[in-house]
Amino acid sequence: MLSKIGRNDPCWCGSGRKYKTCHQAFDEKIQRFREQGHVVPGHNIIKTPADIAGIKESAKINVAVLDYVGEHIKAGMSTEEIDRMVYEKTTAMGGIPAPLNYEGFPKSVCTSINNEVCHGIPSEDIILKEGDIINVDCSTILNGYYSDSSRMYMIGEVSPEKKRLVQVARECLDKGLEAVKPWGFLGDMGQAVHDHAYANGYTIVREIGGHGIGKDFHEEPWVGYNSKAGTEMLLVPGLVFTIEPMVNMGEVGIYIDDENNWTVYTEDGLPSAQWEIQVLVTEDGAEVLSW
Length: 291
What we know:
Blueprint: H1 24-35, H2 49-72, H3 79-92, E1 96-97, E2 110-113, E3 116-118, E4 133-142, E5 145-154, H4 160-178, H5 186-199, E6 203-204, E7 210-212, E8 219-223, E9 240-243, E10 246-248, E11 254-256, E12 264-266, E13 272-274, E14 277-281, E15 286-290
Antiparallel strand pairs: 1-4, 2-4, 3-12, 4-5, 6-10, 7-8, 9-14, 10-13, 11-12, 14-15
Helix pairs in contact: 2-3, 4-5
């Protein structure tokens, strides 16, 4: 909920200015959307300039770690080696790997190969092979601020079908980003992603989506990609969330590994691809914070 503040009180954003000259008009605009029946963000998930600065510092580590993985990933490497790289690089830069021990997750990064949709657990027994595609999903905590992004890596010579899946998944991300506009809606982004995937013969996972992030690992809003334009949460400057559609080559169905209760697979065994970026809604569009 938007908090009640006197016109001459200090603004909730921490600027030190009076509310009436800072965010009062902003809040009144949000309230008008609320009165029209739209879902709107509260102050608790709208990031202040200080929050944004902190998130950007965290994101510098996240981006550097994924760059580092990209420089070293290769066939013959175990996913446990990727986990060690992520842990060592993150901690050397002063950060904490956010996945480590999160709700019992045992590793510092998620490594999801081929038909693994997400939340793959690194292991010494899982060896990257020529022709694999892998999503490496990295998240960082620095001084209490969270960053999150993932990339696809193609190992050696990959089949044309897998290359196309990876490429279209990236295009879906780009289409979604283009649709993020202040005073638009989260559903604008979701429909843009959905339409591009399905136009290319693919499907998008429904049960798992993106999320708000910044002061916690997972915040509101939940971010889906099977939504309609003009629906879902109002996008306002200061809102930070991830765009991370999981694009399946085949059918939309998924299941969770019943032994580790984490790894998600496609039901039909066909590959899935995902890219993830962390996005800040700005006054005139969107800024990618982590990629």
